[in-house]
Amino acid sequence: SRILPVIQESHPIIWLDVNQLLFQIIAASKRPRSSLAMSLKFSYGLTAWKNWSRATTAAAANSGTDYGFVPPDPAELDTLELADALARFVREVRKPSGEEYAADSVYYLCLGLQGHLAIDRGRDENFFCGGPVFYEFCHALDGVLDRYTARVTEDGTLVCRIEELHLWECRQLGFHSADSLLFTLFYFLTRYVGLHTAQEHAALSLGQFALVPAPGAASTDGSGGSFALRFSPQSGYAAGMTYELTEAADPLKCPVRLFQVYLAKRPQFPATVAGPSEPFYLLPDRQRACEPTDPVWYSREACLSEAELNRWLNRIKCVKEIQEAIMHAQMQWSVDPNAM
Question: What is the pTM of this model?
């Protein structure tokens, strides 16, 4: 079991058993849940899939080919077939009237399909962060989301199809995999710290973060004390400021716990690179299973590219809470242009 030293200032080192924490969190996150009780309506995505399946299958029959056949439930496809069908779905899906869906509606439908496969069918694929197999799907979705613009009513109300809760429900956010852990840190830094461009995210280094005892921390033995994640950005809207993200009441959604696990699962860098200059966003190691007991989940050979970070931004800019954070930053900038 790997033990993580918690970085502190003028305090004894606190040790955290990350693997034990991870087992507890993953066990809690995998407790059976009914999709009927969730805010994200999986049925919308599944209905759109069935309509598209019916249309493509009919078109294939009329043309005398088998290529267009798609089963009415995506769970009937293996991983490679699913990846191909999802890319086609994103490009071809239409409303029953024949009109195109809004960009964020296409994303919502895909989240519903992800939730259906993960929650209702027990499938492990995360096709939003599934590596090379789902590249064409992610590329197609990014093309759709490129045309997304926030909708605001005349009275100033922000209209968003997707909320943060939906991402938690379909396991895009959380400790479910090396990919979702990394994506969640990216999401938190975008929402709470004001990193709103791919360039700002790409410039992050590990040395800009520290774990420190939270104000009023009760103990120093790792059992009862609480911590804060301290972040000092060097560029962008938040440059020159110091942020502290405190522990959340729900450990499944706690930025401090997420960072602790991420730090523990990073590889050791050579002495010439290790330390403050270590790049922050490391790619998951696709050669590993990334089980809770695996000491390393990420590769030191590659970082998330700026292009991939931009695709992630395209995705989360459709989320209500992110749009609210962006609008808040823009309002602050309009009052004080030197703040950004």
Answer: 0.86
